[in-house]
Specification:
This protein is an alpha/beta fold and 360 residues long. The chain folds into 3 domains: 171 residues, Spore Coat Polysaccharide Biosynthesis Protein SpsA, Chain A (Alpha-Beta Complex), CATH 3.90.550.10; 61 residues; 81 residues, Alpha Horseshoe (Serine Threonine Protein Phosphatase 5, Tetratricopeptide repeat). It is 44% helix and 19% strand.
Length: 360
């Protein structure tokens, strides 16, 4: 059982909802247990050993009848917590790093805010071999006072202020590895489930940019680029805040859809939003690809070079080996082999660059 927190540390309840998670839940709870958390597990109808395994780590296990509403299950788990501060974790998210004292300091500094942890998501990169993977890093709001926040949305639920005002976010020193979408068959299965619920949510609650974004993501996972592009476009038709991480991701995802659909000229419209979105390496990297596909090679190289100067990024490699590799490709394709070699060598152990060096 979790140990009691130190008297000067804000007590936190970790709230987890689960269904048939025997593959993941032991590792998830084992990594959480040493950190003075109360652990709440709400099962929504498991037919495997999920509940049995969870009992090895906590006696705070409850049942919730599944009603196709993730927020309802989340809010039920929050209601079962003993502490006011809630940390929400999924069974397929495994704690990597945590600074408990620094989290407590952040809570005291932002008593009405929502803390955003770092989630590292592995994924298969487009255009690379099927077994090539990379990491997509995102910040998601998961730590909050239950007097200030609850969940809304039946699928891809969001933390929202109870009083309806705008949330205030702050970063917390906690990162986890999200394994649930590594297997492509499982990812597609979850995407189909999510899509059904998202379309139901859209029908029930009306147009919403975040819902459109999540529908786009589901179609992306199902490799339906046309529909993904359509829904990202609908989401960006709203007056959205470019500082929100999901908006940045939606813009970048839309850009990649346009490139996949060979709508290269249309993608040049991203020049008009450059100042709003070039705040991390991902956007200038995307602009580099857009210019590259429009045969605007000098501009492409300039954007890739800008990308490597950004310390922050979402997709691993956009501010390092991926940017250098694309510069190498441009130089190689424009008959500058020595310059190409120099940039391929800067890619380190990146396999595509190594293969090009062998050819050159």
């Amino acid at each position: 059982m979790p140990i009691s927190p130190k008297p000067d540390i804000t007590p936190i309840s970790v709230c987890i909802i689960a269904k048939n998670e025997e593959k993941y839940i032991s590792r998830c709870l084992r990594l959480l247990s040493p950190h003075s958390f109360e652990i709440i597990v709400v099962d929504t109808g498991s037919t495997d050993r999920t509940v049995e395994i969870a009992r090895e780590f906590t006696d705070k296990i409850y049942h919730f009848d599944w009603i196709n509403d993730f927020s309802a299950a989340r809010n039920y788990s929050i209601a079962k917590a003993s502490h006011d501060w809630i940390l929400v974790i999924d069974c397929d998210e495994f704690l990597e790093t945590i600074d408990r004292a620094a989290i407590d300091a952040a809570i005291r500094q932002h008593p009405r805010g929502a803390g955003m942890l770092i989630r590292n998501n592995p994924y298969v990169t487009g255009g690379q071999p099927a077994d090539a993977s990379s990491i997509l890093t995102e910040r998601v709001a998961r730590l909050f006072s239950r007097h200030e926040y609850h969940y809304r949305g039946i699928i891809h639920e969001q933390v929202a202020r109870i009083d309806g005002s705008e949330p205030g976010y702050f970063p917390i020193p906690l990162s986890c590895y999200h394994e649930g979408y590594v297997n492509q068959d499982i990812a597609a299965q979850k995407a189909r489930r999510n899509l059904d619920l998202l379309l139901l949510d859209l029908d029930k609650n009306g147009p919403d940019p975040y819902t459109y974004y999540q529908i786009g993501k589901s179609y992306t996972a199902l490799k339906d680029t046309e529909n993904a592009c359509h829904y990202y476009s609908l989401g960006l038709g709203f007056d959205v805040n470019p500082q929100l991480e999901y908006v940045q991701s939606m813009v970048e995802s839309y850009g990649y859809c346009l490139l996949d659909l060979k709508r290269y000229k249309e993608a040049l419209m991203f020049e008009n939003i450059y100042d709003d979105f070039a705040t991390r390496a991902d956007f200038p990297f995307l602009m580099g690809l857009i210019y590259m596909n429009n045969a605007m090679f000098d501009r492409a190289i300039a954007e890739f070079k800008k990308a490597v100067t950004h310390p922050t990024y979402s997709v691993e490699g956009v501010n390092s080996y991926s940017a250098y590799y694309n510069i190498g490709v441009i130089y190689e394709c424009t008959s500058h082999p020595e310059e190409a070699k120099a940039y391929y060598q800067m890619c380190g152990a990146y396999e595509p660059a190594i293969r090009r060096l062998e050819v050159l």
